[in-house]
Each structure stands twice: as C-alpha cells, then as structure tokens.
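Posting this for the archive.
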Amino acid sequence: MDRVFKLIQKEQERQNSTIELIASENFVSENVLKAAGSCLTNKYAEGYPGRRYYGGCEVVDELEEYCRQKWQQVFQTDYHVNVQPLSGTHANMTAYAALLRPGDTILSLDLQMGGHISHGLPISMTGRLYNIEHYGLDGRGYIDMGSVEDMAKRTQPKLIIAGASAYSRIIDFERFARIAHENGALLMADIAHIAGLVAAGEHPSPFGHADIITTTTHKTLRGIRSALIFCKPEYAKKVDSALFPGMAGGPHMHTIAAKAVTAEEALTPEFRAYIRRVVENSRAMAAEFTRMGYKVVAGGTDNHMFLLDFTHTHPTITGQMVQQALDSRAITLNKNSVPGEKRSPMQTSGVRIGTAAMTTKGFGKDDFIAVAHRIDEIIASLPCE
C-alpha cells in the first residue's frame, strides 16, 4: 500500500507544480473528493430508486433522486436525467443503444475537424455498430451548417450529433434541431466540454432543441470524472433500460454522491463568475497567440479552449514535439489533429489549449498571456522535425 500512496502523493505534487492547459482537465473541490471517497463505495444498488435488486437502498435511493433534481436545476430543465453513466463515452453508447439499431446512420463532426472518437471513428465501437457519415468545417474553421443540411438530406441519418472535443466556436443547437427534425432524424447534443458554459449561461443551451443530451461532469463543470444523460420525457424509458440492464450493472453510488456535490457547486453565483473568467481568459490567450503570428483555428474562441495549427506557421514542428517540450518544463497540454491534418494522430500538426483548470487555480488574463509567451519561447527553441 505504501507504493500506491507514494504514487498518489507524487501525482499530487506534479499537479501542484504544473501549469495545466489540457482542456478536458480541471481541479475538483475538497467536498467532491470527500464524497467520492466516502463509504458509499461499499453499496451495491442495481436498478433505479424504488426498483432495486438489493436491500438496504433507502439512503442511496434518496441520494440518487436528490442528484437528479439538482442536475435538472443546474440546466433549468424538465428533461428526464439519468445520473448513472460512468463516462462520456458510456453515456454516448447508451444513447445510441436507446435510440438506434445496428446499421443505422449517424451524422457527426469529423474527428480531424474536432469531433470525438465515440461519435464514429471507424475503429471505435460506434464505428463498428453504426453507419457513420461526417460533416466538417467551412473555410473559416466554423461548423459548415450548409454541409450539415446537405448531408442530412442526402444520407437520411437516424441521429445527428451536435458536439465536439476540439471546437472553439458557438454551436447552433437550434439550427441543428431544425435540420434533424426536417429530415426525420433525432438530435443528440454532446456538451461534455461546454456543459459548464451552458449551465452558467455563457453558451446557448441545447435544452428544448435536442432530443437527447449527454455530458461529462468534469471538464468545465469542475466535478467528478463521470457523466449524465438527459432526454425528452418520451425517451426516458428507453434511455433508462438501455443503461440498466443494457450497458451497466450496479451504479457507483460514491460517484453519484460526488455528482450531486458538483451540481450544488454549479448552482452557486461563484460558479457563474468562474465560468465567465474561463471564457475571458481563453479569449485573451488565443488573441495573444494570434498577435504573435500563430494560427488559431477558427480565428479565436467562444469557450474554454482553442487549437493552434502549426501547418503553415511552423511547418517543421509537430504537436507531439510541442507537448513533450512543454511537459519537460512543467506546462501540460495535448497534441491535437487540425483541419486538413496530414500527420498521424500520434504526431499531429497542432495542440489544444484550455483555460478551465488554471482559472480554478486563480490565473487571470495577464497570467495566461504570460504563459502564451513562455510557450512561444519554448517553441522557438525547438529543433526542426
């Protein structure tokens, strides 16, 4: 056991001493950690509140119902919510299982354009089970809504996914819904990255437009590593049965407790102010990179992240080179494919930068601008590929 706790302490020291710019990471509160490490990890509770397959569930029934109610309050919605998914991909696969049959067509954002592997990469389970069609970005780096409309008419998908893993601009959920429903498709919004912004009113909400919505509870929500599924009430039974018994057994009640704490925190004025700072910091940092001559994909950002594309400004530099060089200098980010990518996913021609984590640690615009200059210095020192 000493080895394990020494490694945990080592990781804590790394996190304390590193400038964290990975867009999907954040730092949770002590209360979230306390709930996640509670005695609730001991409790098995297959099923749903009032319909369990184990005894002794009266407390966890109350907890799960409370968690559900809090998340409905966070997003100001009457959508049904299932709080049992274990991760974003688990939530997405459950949504597909609830609404689709193997072989059905899904229309989603191309991975190289900012999509996510669970939205239909050929080697992923989604790509193996469903027929995947992709839309992309226009010349500005924005989602090409004209292409979405044309593709929907041509491919007649059963499901259109509006969501991304590396996209810095506003997503027009209203227009996505109109396109989907005019073509007989359902709309799924994957807001894993922008959920905190939606909750705080800093990004248009998919509620009222999308038929089903998935999200993680970390990233910009700054909570436990887990997920949620929301859906219009008419799909509630399908979603719940797709998750249990379809995609999971007993839910992780300690994680549900931590999700409830995360929801409580997201309902505070302090959280809204935090999200405003995240977006302000992201815009300031992206603008500084542009001023220094870098290409920021889509010309800037409306959320917590942005991509640097080295293809033309630094053609001999790879994303992997930048990631490794920054790692050695206690700055953490991730290599990322860019639109029109020619390199492999392990090399890439760009990097993704996020501001949520260091905003939690108190960084402001001046701090992020200073970090941008430090990154520029490190990139300038790199040898040619």
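DSSP finds 14 helices and 15 strands in the chain. Residues 269-291 form the longest helix (23 residues).
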